[in-house]
């Protein structure tokens, strides 16, 4: 944004450096944080000016002035497509006869894949994702955000190669490829959230971080479409083609990374301030003064964080205000599983079959569920800035809870009308989920972490996401399968009950991060504000 726009948006000239104060919270007057902030040799005028500049910009203004930043964020998020693709291709290939024939056995004239191999094939990527997420902090802080994406791309190419050439009945080789690929997928999703949060201007931060979930949905839709197109082949290419097509996106990423800008936050932390300034100038169409102001904001924010905690280790994620921030970042993915996403979406085809659709039509409706998710996620690009993170996540949890309980109650009846209603509610649930807690999870976990710990915190969050998905997939098979608990739709009561507690957790712990710069969030977390106070709290205020 130009200096002229900043002046027009400011109600009065910015005060001198020593006239800026940090507003005291009523329940914490004279707190240590206030005293500390007064003792730090920071240019609060720069922080206040940068905050005013960013708050004044609308999303459309930000896209126009930071179009390059917007497009590079979308590009880096492409790696998340592979996460969604891999997750969906697992269940999809289990429906392909030639895959079951080559990696299973013939039972009563039909190709069958043993239950233990089904479970391993569906969950081994999540195991790899756990280690990929955990390692991102060290990799990203050493190689940069671009370096982490490059490493993940190379690993993914090798892992897909292993899967493609796995000979029939060599299940171990196939699982090894899935495990290694899962490692790269955990890194892809983690670094996408970090990069978007650091490169995007404030007005675009919610949109670009929500794009991570959109790319995941696109990957799932792409996987479903490909398996639908080639799954009826009788040769090995019925499953090798879906594997091979995963090569496309790591290659595109590697080709584009040579032109992609590095995160200016990473560069400043490596004392490469001149390079950071060049990146800032490249990512926006603003004036030189705007770029200098943004660089100064990054420098002062890092100085503020270093004052509160001079180190940046994994242990720091669990201490003080950073411990609270880590808990919030991790909890959004736990809440997604408590809201029953694996139950409803993972078994949507099962509910369609119960409603009377044949296998082919049930699969087509499963593809439709994914398409509805993409539409819902696209709506989030508007609502995330209009209504805020806390509001959408809270009401999304409440709405998902309601749908889950309705599915449970409908299961009590064995009528065809009840089965149709259950199938319809899977569509409604997916739309609600993908307009709220699905994409908002990726927004919140990237925004609440401090700049110095962001790569570590988002990596741990993706690790927890993978672990929760792993546990949910294992538990669900025992709850739903006819030869086990055989609860069917009654599982809606279980996840509905969990979601009630999840909704209460959201009320007390998920803060509003909309329109908050990094330094503003740092101050509010250090002041230990309750989550519900974040939205109305004033940070920089002129003295009377």
Automatic annotation (TrEMBL):
Keyword Magnesium found: no
Positions of the UniProt region annotated as Disordered: 1-31
Entries under InterPro entries matching the protein: MFS_dom (IPR020846), MFS_sugar_transport-like (IPR005828), MFS_Sugar_Transporters (IPR050360), MFS_trans_sf (IPR036259), Sugar/inositol_transpt (IPR003663), Sugar_transporter_CS (IPR005829)
Subcellular location: Membrane
This protein's UniProt keywords: Membrane, Transmembrane, Transmembrane helix, Transport
Catalytic activity: myo-inositol(out) + H(+)(out) = myo-inositol(in) + H(+)(in)
Single GO cellular component term: membrane
Molecular functions (GO terms): carbohydrate:proton symporter activity
Family stated for the protein in its record: Belongs to the major facilitator superfamily. Sugar transporter (TC 2.A.1.1) family.
Protein name: Maltose permease
Species of provenance: Coniophora puteana (strain RWD-64-598) (Brown rot fungus)
